[in-house]
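Re-run requested by the PI after the first attempt was lost when the workstation crashed. Everything re-entered from the original request form. Ligand of interest: GMT.
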Amino acid sequence: MRIGIVLYPTYGGSGIVATELGKELARIGHEVHFITYSQPVKLGGFKKNIHYHEVRVSDYPLFTYTPYELVLTSKLVNVVKYENLDLLHAHYAVPHASAAYMAKQILAEQGIQIPLITTLHGTDITLVGKDSSFQPVIEFAINNSDVITAVSESLKEDTLTYFEVEKSINVIPNFIHLKNYLKNPNLAVKTKYAPNGEKIITHISNFRKVKRIPDLVYAFDEINKEIPSVLLLIGDGPERNNVEELCRELNTCESIHFLGNIKYPQDVLQISDLFMLPSETESFGLAALEAMASGTPVVASKTGGIPEVVEDGVSGLLHEVGNIDGIVKNGITVLNNNEKFKEGALRKSQEFDLQSVLPKYLEVYESLLSEQR
Ligand code: GMT
C-alpha cells in the first residue's frame, strides 16, 4: 500500500504514535509518505520506504494569519496525485482531517478517489473540540472521514458526548515498540541524579495546564520528606516557568531537575522508580505506557483513558484529579512496594505492543481499499 500520514511533527503523543505507525508500516514493506510542516522528531534518518513532504508556508504581507490549512490541502492533493497514494491517514482532527477532506473533494473532481482515515487523539476532542470556534469543523471532519478511530474507549465516549456523530468509531489503542524500552539502565546517569541512593520520580509532558504539574511538585515535596527522592521533569511548554517558580517557593529546587525535551525518554524511565501523571484529563496517556514498558510503575489521575492503560493496584495506583494527599499516599506505597508494581507495569504494557495493535490498523486500511475496488 502507498499510505499518506498527516501528523503533528512535535513531541506530542499524537505525532509520536503516527510516526511509529508509519515507520513500522514502511518496515514491513508499505510505502509511507509523512506530510507535515517539519521533520517529525521521531522519524530518524534515511530509511527504506519512507518519504517526508514538508508543508512550506510563505508569509504574504496581506495575511495577518498564514493559512496553513490551505497549503496543507494543496500539498495533500499533489502528494496523493503524483505519488499515487492509496489512502490518507490523518492524525488529529484539526486541521489534518478537515484539510484531508478538502483534498479528497478536490481530487474527486479530478476523478481520483482517496479514502480518508481519521484518528482522534484526545485534545482535538476534549479541549479544542469543546471550543465553539472549532466545533462545527471537527464534527464535519469526523462525519465525513471514511473511518474514524479513537485511541481509547473513554475518548470514543467523549466524542459521542460532545459531537453529533453519525459514524461508528473504532477504538484502536495507542501502542509502543516494546523492544525499544527494555534496555539495561544507564547506572552512571542514575548515580549522577541520585548519588545517595535517592528514589527517582519522573514526569514527562508538554507542560500545559491540563497536566497539573503543580500538584506533582506539592506531592513530591511531601514524598521527599518521607523517602529521599529526586524529581526529573522532562519536556517543555507554557507552564514551565510557573513550575520553576513553585519549586523556588517551596525551596525544593535542589531535588528537582528540569531536563527539557528528550528524544528517547526510555533512557530516563529505565532509571526511574516511579512515573507520575496527575493530569486533569488524558485520552490515553502515552507517556504512562512508555514508563510501564520501561519497568516503571505509574501514579496517575483516575481520568479519561488512563484507567484503560494503568491497571489500578497492578501497574501503579490511581487517585482522583487534584487530590494531592492521594498522590502522596500512592507515591509512597508504590515506592515501598516497587518490585511488585514494576512487574505489574511490565506485564500490563505487553497488551499495547505494536505487534498486537498494528494488525488493527492494517485491517481498517485493507477493508477500506477492498470497498474501493
Ligand atoms: O497530551 C498532550 O498534551 C499531547 C496530545 C497530543 O495531541 O499529542 O496528547 C493526546 O494524544 C496522545 C496520543 O494519542 C494521548 O496519549 C494523550 O493522552 C492525549 N492528551 C490528552 O488527552 C490531554
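Saved to the shared folder this time. The chain has two domains: 2-175+354-372, 178-352.
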